Hints:
The complex is a heterodimer.
Chain A: H1 2-41, E1 46-49, H2 51-59, E2 68-74, H3 86-103, E3 111-117, H4 122-128, E4 135-139, H5 146-149, E5 151-152, H6 161-173, H7 188-211, H8 219-234, H9 237-243, E6 249-250, E7 258-259, H10 270-293, H11 300-329
Chain B: H1 2-28, H2 32-36, H3 45-59, H4 61-65, E1 68-69, E2 78-79, H5 87-101, H6 108-135, H7 137-148, H8 151-157, H9 164-185, H10 188-204, H11 208-224, H12 230-247, H13 256-259, H14 264-285, H15 288-319, H16 327-333, H17 336-341, H18 343-347, H19 356-362, H20 366-377, H21 383-401, H22 406-435, H23 442-468, H24 475-488, H25 492-501, H26 506-534, E3 542-546, E4 549-553, H27 555-566, E5 572-574, H28 580-587, E6 590-591, H29 600-611, H30 614-623, E7 626-632, H31 643-657, H32 680-684, H33 686-692, H34 696-699, E8 703-704, E9 709-710, E10 721-726, E11 732-737, H35 743-753
Parallel strand pairs in B: 5-6, 5-7
Antiparallel strand pairs in B: 1-2, 3-4, 7-11, 8-9, 10-11
Helix pairs in contact in B: 1-6, 1-7, 3-5, 3-28, 5-6, 6-7, 6-8, 6-9, 6-22, 7-22, 8-22, 9-10, 9-12, 10-12, 11-14, 11-21, 12-14, 14-15, 20-22, 21-22, 22-26, 23-24, 27-28, 29-30, 29-31
Protein name (chain B): dolichyl-diphosphooligosaccharide--protein glycotransferase
Membrane topology (chain B): Multi-pass membrane protein
Main location (chain B): endoplasmic reticulum
Amino acid sequence: MAISSTHLFxxxxxxFSVLSVISKAESESELVADLLALQSESKSGVIxxxxxxxxxFLTSPKTPRPYSIIIFFDATQLHDKxxxxxxxxxxxxxxxxxxxxxxxxxxxTKLFFCDIEFRxxxxxxxLFGVNSLPHIRLVGPSAKSLKDESEQMDQGDFSRMxxxxxxxxxxxxxxxxxxxxxxxxLSKKQVVFIIVVLLIWSPFMVKKIxxxxxxxxxxxxxxxxxxFIYFFSVSGAMHNIIRKMPMFLVDRxxxxxMVFFYQGSGMQLGAEGFAVGFLYTIVxxxxxxxxxxxxxxxxxxxxxVAMLFAIFVSFWAVKKVIFLDNWKTGYGIHGFWPSSWN
Amino acid sequence: xxxxxxRNAFGGVLSFFILLLIGVLAFSIRLFSVIKYESxxxxxxxxxxxxxxxxxxxxxxxEFWNWFDDRTWYPLGRVIGGTVYPGLTLTAGTxxxxxxxxxxxxxxxxxxxxxxxxFSAFAxxxxxxxxxxVKGAGxxxxxxxxxxxxxxxxxxxxxxxxxxxxxxxxxxxxxxxLYIKTLNTGSLFYATLNSIAYFYMVCSWGGYTFIxxxxxxxxxxxxxxxxxxxxxxxxxxxLVVLGTLLAALVPVVGFNAVMTSEHxxxxxxxxxxxxxxxxxxxxxxxxxxxxxxxxxxxxxVGLVVCCAVIxxxxxxxxxxxxxxxxxxxxxxxxxxxxxxxxxxxxSVSEHQxxxxxSYFMDINVLAFLVPAGIIACFLPLxxxxxxxxxxxxxxxYFSGVMVRLMLVLAPAACITSGIALSQAFxxxxxxIKYQLPGVSxxxxxxxxxxxxxxxxxxNDAVKTEKTEETSKDRxxxxxxxxxxVQVEKPSTKxxxxxxxxxxxxxxxxxxxxxxxxxxxxxxxxxxxxxxxxAYSAPSIVLTSHSHDGLHVFDDFREAYGWLRHNTxxxxxxxxxxxxxxxxxxxxxxxxxxxxxxxxxxxxxxVGTAMSSPEKAAWEIFHSxxxxxxxxxxxxxxGYPSDDINKFLWMVRIGGGxxxxxxxxxxxxxxxxxxxxxxTSTMLNCLMYKLSYxxxxxxxxKGFDRVRRTEIGKKYFKxxxxxxxxxxxxxxxxxxxxxxxxxxxxxxxxxxxxx
Lengths: 342, 754
């Protein structure tokens, strides 16, 4: 009995080890097949990893693995922190993934795109030594230690969104990602729909234009539009859009305090721009009000009060802008008076 | 009546002298650069223009037109005649020729230096004419005075800043003036002049596309808002036909005038205006009932034709990869375009979007006045004033996208602010006049009134003319105007009485007036400060103030002078492209690349050489026949825009074409540094070696004042280059390539070692 039990034990051990060897031999292609299956399941081609998947696809297989894996570290609870841009970066990452897969005819087995969520796979985060987000990491085929031998994508590499991520991938893996396929803003159906609506609408519009009764014939609309565009431009809103400036910053020393005005002329914050744009515009509007509207008011006291109000506000606005400009740029604007005056 | 005409004559003479003074102001405020530095051409591009002008004055117009320049882009060369906007050069050349034939022997350089201030005076007069057409002479004078000293324009037109914008802004304003003039008069004479002014603008600056898009936009706006008139047709149709033909004569534009998308708007509107003109014509000859039938017919046919044309246009446009638009125009339409797709455009500092302080710096208090001017243009809205509104709105939007286009905004801001200021002054002074104690006799009132009523009468005349739409009987127009004035005469008294009621409270008006004058004074102080301190540095001569007085750094001219006198005429000098124009203009030596960055590969070759180790660099330079290498180094005096600071661009551009140059090799942990932590690639590249060769001998430590650190590699020898000249402050260093080594010696050495 004892013999048989030891036999059994031996047998089972042999069987097990043989099995494991076989599974080892098989597993490489199996793992790839699994990854491909997972990839086809996800919409953008980004495979969702958890702790088990990490150990299965990354830690347990022997190096060199037949594939590289690029991992996006995500945290749902941080999605609403806009300064991290996690959600946008995740979208861009998905774009790179889908473009890569499409450009390689859905048959690439060398590189897989994955993401890991912080809440559900904290131990993986520890495994990679990730303690700040956004964080993207490339695990090459021969990387044994996930923490030290995988490559982290620099801030600079995802600053230019999908294109620069693709460059990073291309430079490290020697694979070609190809052009990024961004989804068009309007789908084809929408475009057709809009064209049809326009075609139907155009005869009516032309008729109205000839009759002269559209909104376009109302100068007030044009006036409001012109002043608004002026306000929009002088407030530097274009700068905010192009540079993706936030409306305000949180003070680093004191998280409860908010910074609305940024010192230094090369940059501005959103709220700051609108505030000064408002000051720029209000003076002109008040001046126009006084010269074109107030003169027709009959009541003398009303005139006086309104004018004093306008003078006061304009004076304050101009003074404020001059003060802010001096503070922000640090230029010492001075007159050139005769030296005997000093 | 005689009293009135005397008054008008006096006003005319006064305006003339005011305009003269404005011209003097515009000219003299731009002379700070000459007074503080010297009469010298500024920066980079002006040196090219200067060299072209020299060639023109020496060889004549035909030689200039066919000029193939073999002194740049060696060994490729460059066709100059066909690739430059010739307006500026021809203008300065003509001025020089005129002065010389009058026996005034000015040098070409002097003429070039003062071209920009002269044209600023012209520009302010053109502003007067334009604003006068829109809102009368008072607004015109104010606008001209504002434009004479607006900082944004000063920044591009100080004495010595001999660049295209110097004449182009005048051409821009003058073209707009002639357009408005044609629109107000309906005269073909002005329409022809307008086309010629447009031709001058096309000759001068690539910014002419702004005109050829803005005017069609205005025409379309007029049509859409039901303001079509035969005057509009006369103002627009000749401009498109003649203007396009003339524009195609300029070699650099050529067939682009009909083939690129920038011009398509004008052709589209050209079609539209003909359809509309046809409709109005039919309306005129048919009875209302017949017209209704005709309208449906014409509109349906017109729509079909329009759709077909638009479809063809879209197909044409879509077939080209950039949709027919140049990258710069596209980044205006979609501001985020450049930052996404064209880093080289996005990287240029003058293509950055401005922040609010830029507006305060460049148009100063005008930023406060513009909204009032916009509103004034709407009360009442005329063809001319709607054009001004469109101009300010488009230009302010464009300036929001690119700080460089602030230059186009400046005239518009001056015009609207001039209108706002003059109307405000009008209201406040009127209020004061009618409420001052002692001024009550109607006689004086009447006398004071006439000047402003006549201005108004003129405006009214324009207005009625428009509404009546009877431009057929042109000869009778003058008589009608007279009639109008006569009609108005009796009513002046009643009007004066009405005006008295329209007055504002006395003391508030006085305060407002004083505040407005203070605002104007602040503007003057700011402009003078900007002209004197911010915008007049020639950047070829540098100065710095320190506790022991003024230091002048004239190293650039020292170096170019050395090259001119100590090297052979046909020697080739390699440097980064920034210094190409200056080297050809001042040293008269052949360069490999220059500021006209038309060939990226060639620039990348130089960039690669600069970022390679000595031997590889020597081979590259030797293959290009280069004899001398020039580097700019600011480490000793703290001049920040030197070659070490530009070096990463050389690496990037070089690496873009030659992949063995990789940016990360020059960075330590993503940081660009030249101290002991720098990578070995960085410390061994040619740029590092040429910049810091023997640098440690200056202070014993090798402390770089720009990077604020001690350099990484202090003692080294050059194997393939030898230092031949270093300027006084070490700002320019010139090296000579050593001749190739004797092959025999190498062989003997080898045998010895064996």
